[in-house]
Amino acid sequence: MKKTLYTQIEGGKGFWALLAGFGVVILAGLASMYYMEHNGHWVTGMNNSVVWGTPHVFAIFLIVAASGALNVASIGSVFGKKMYKPLAPLSGILAVALLVGGLAVLVLDLGRPDRLIVAMTNYNFKSIFAWNIILYTGFMAIVAIYLWMMLEKRFNKYSTSVGTFAFVWRLLLTTGTGSIFGFLVAREAYDAALMAPMFVVMSFSFGLAIFMLVLFASYRMTGRPLGDYVVRRLKNLLGVFVAGVLYFVLVYHLANLYATEHHGVESFILTSGGIYTMLFWVGQILLGSLVPLAILYNPATGNSRGWISIASVLVIFGGLSQLYVLLIGGQAYPMKTFPGYEVTSSFGDGMIASYSPTLPEVLLGISGFAIALVAVTIAVRHLRALPASLADGETDPHAA
Amino acid sequence: MRISKLLQMVPAALALTLSAPALAGDGAGPEVPKAIKGEECVEPTSDMRRNHMEYLKHHRDEALREGIRTKQYSLKQCLECHVAPEGDPQAPQDSSEHFCMACHEYAGVTIDCFQCHATQPKETASFHPLVTPGMKAIKDQAGRSGELLNQFAESHASKTRTGAIQ
Amino acid sequence: MSEDTNLKRREFIGNGAKLAAGLTIAPGVVVYGLSEASVPDRPAEEPASSERRWGMLVDSNKCATGCDKCVTACGEENGWDDSEPNSSPEQKAQWIRKVELRHKGTGKSHSLPMMCQHCENPPCVDVCPTNASMKRADGIVLVDRHRCIGCRYCMMACPYKARSFIHETLTDQEPHMPRGKGTVESCTMCVHRVDEGREPACVEECPEQAILFGDLNDPDSAIAQALTRYDSTAVREDLGLNPGVRYRGI
């Protein structure tokens, strides 16, 4: 294996066009945010029953994917897989960028984003949110140092130890994100410690899917060679992760189905929940898991980059569906305040809560992706982070 | 806390620089409405001008988080003296006639107090139960109200016991 | 009880002479409104103390289906009735609501008011990142809206659905009850009244006197006495939150 040569991308028309395109989406997101904050959240689909809506689905997806995007680097640094090493800088950059995108969406959907300084200066150390503020900022700092160690030749020798630390940190981070839901006793769909490991596996899958799309796109757009060896290894890994998520989803639902007390929420999600049932079976299970698995492992499609890209897009779609079902479906299903009773009130007790996303919420959510991708584009323009070639001869230890 | 304080000083400092000519004494200060009640504020005027925000902030945390209900530095109490209630002929018609806002707008210092706090006192404030003579008379009987209360609780209880319950 | 039971406190307050008459004609009314428990004798400069724990006992046997006087009283007192013209019914704040229950097996029905349960171990306080959700020393759970960033995590965590988010700009707030857009709010147990030695509005306005308010820590208080004498339950007792609001008859 040769020494990897990293180069910046060109700053030509394509670069600016890309930035302009993402910029438009970001502007749309900011306009949405201004609209929502100026009027108040009554212009959104949220209400007092479904308090976290579409922006949260996107934000949590991006945050979960962020830690997963770092996996590629971890496999190289921590587990010593040589093929992944040249991919590590892009992996680190993408991880930070996705986290920034996700946090931006989360913050811009607050009731009082102008008081963010309050969140920085008053900590309740028992709040998982407060832990997460530390975990997120720490993640950015650690990955930044990790990138520095990788990109600066003199420091390369430290990249394994810093990378290991970053890997442990990212596991904690996703545990923290999963625990936002897992530790909520109030809601039946959440209250499960399983959430934390499930979110970790989800992060592997979502993060890798985004990483692959970014990798394919950047190599195609810059005309750099990307060999089949890298593509094949990555797509096989994606398949394993998708299957892993499926396994956790299965265990989660089996556990709930076994316990009579959870039959209500299960039948809501699995059979009678309308849009949530539909998104679960069609979005999350069929399009988001089974179809990608079929694409990735079928020799007819598994060797085609076009098909692999489609599979990655489907995994992202499935992930968003999964979070929509979990997050919004979990809130739409009424809380069991009085077990054994039929409950009615003027405040939606005992009723399935209604929620339909509005355009500004969706735009704000999508702008999170745009923020992340702008950050990546600018980073690879100014940092020597992308290997000049990922042709088989460069990456495959068995190639001649 | 440090950072937030520093950040809060930015608009204030900016406003000071911008309004420097006014402060230099060309006579074009803000037209701040006179208080509708009382002759003196809770502290000397110069002190209040400089430090009212500190007093208010200190009081707000104590009042809300600890339940200390002194009136000296309460925002509600500021308004009781400085702003006429709705319907009163002296009541401010727009922010330039409002004691707090007139000056803050002039100085260019944005505050978000009134996004939540009422901008005017309510007339009913004078009907405070602890100050009406009738209520005072009853409060004086508090000594025996405990006794009466137990009697009441007893009758209350026996009533429920015989009622259609459980 | 005489007809006077239904006299509204507000009328008493507005008319001292009538009030004095009320004392002689129907002592129960006055005593109920001004029990020792509701007059804390705490000087204004003294902070709330953990020696007290304010609580309520709601008797659902007395609570009538269709009656929502406590809800109206709370809304008027705290200004959340009709304060959000743009918000949908699902978006409007409700600090207290009437809940109708019907047992799925037996068909037995109950009616009761539901509001912040003022837990001893409140999940909303645990999850709040900025300490805006807080429990006062005397057990009253509040939102410090100076610190609330509107993240709504407390609303996710509350098992009683007691909290509301304000979806639009508010005007004409009550001077004693600041509330505003982008923050979360809930029943304050009428903390402004309790600190003045008055009972919460819902307690005062209930025509059936179904809500007993007082100091749970004072063994002589009517509420503590009633709690030792009768069966009562906390909603979702299984969660171990030890709410300050308890119910009879469910």
What distance lies between the first and last C-alpha atoms of chain B, to the nearest angstrom? 55 Å
* Tertiary shape of chain A: globular
Q: Return the average pLDDT of chain B rounded to an integer.
A: 72
User: What is the CATH topology assignment of chain A?
Assistant: Formate dehydrogenase/DMSO reductase fold
CATH superfamily of chain A: Formate dehydrogenase/DMSO reductase domain
Largest sheet geometry of chain B: none
| Tally of discrete structural domains of chain B | 2
Shape of chain B: globular
Cα-atom Rg of chain A, whole angstroms? 21 Å
Count of alpha and pi helical runs of chain B: 8
Strand and helix map with partners:
The complex is a heterotrimer of chains A (400), B (166) and C (250).
Chain A: E1 6-7, H1 13-39, H2 54-69, H3 71-77, H4 88-108, H5 116-121, H6 128-151, H7 159-182, H8 195-221, H9 228-258, H10 263-272, H11 275-297, H12 299-302, H13 305-332, E2 341-345, H14 359-382, E3 386-387, H15 392-395
Antiparallel strand pairs in A: 1-3
Helix pairs in contact in A: 1-14, 2-4, 2-7, 2-8, 2-13, 2-14, 3-4, 3-7, 4-6, 4-14, 6-7, 7-8, 8-9, 8-13, 9-11, 9-13, 10-11, 11-13
Chain B: H1 2-18, H2 20-23, H3 45-66, H4 75-82, H5 99-107, H6 113-116, H7 133-140, H8 142-162
Chain C: H1 9-14, H2 16-25, H3 27-33, E1 54-59, H4 69-78, E2 96-103, E3 109-115, H5 123-127, E4 133-135, E5 141-143, H6 153-157, E6 164-165, E7 184-185, H7 191-194, H8 201-205, E8 211-215, H9 222-229, E9 245-248
Helix pairs in contact in C: 2-3
Task: Describe this structure as you would to a colleague.
The complex is a heterotrimer of chains A (400), B (166) and C (250). Chain A is mostly helical. Helices cover 69% and strands 2% of the residues of chain A. Chain A has a two-stranded antiparallel ribbon. In chain A, α8 (195-221) packs antiparallel against α13 (305-332) and α10 (263-272) packs across α11. Chain A is globular and about 70 Å long. Chain B has 2 domains: 1-14 and 30-121, no CATH class; 128-166. Chain C has 2 domains: 1-34, no CATH class; 45-248, Alpha-Beta Plaits (2-Layer Sandwich), CATH 3.30.70.20. Chain C has helices at 9-14, 16-25, 27-33, 69-78, 123-127, 153-157, 191-194, 201-205, 222-229; strands spanning 54-59, 96-103, 109-115, 133-135, 141-143, 164-165, 184-185, 211-215, 245-248. Chain C has a 3-stranded mixed β-sheet with strand order 8-1-9. A two-stranded antiparallel ribbon of chain C has the order 2-3. Chain C is globular and about 45 Å long. Classes of the chains: A mainly alpha (400), B mainly alpha (166), C alpha+beta (250). Chains A and C meet through α5, α6 and β2 of A and β2, α5, α6 and β6 of C.
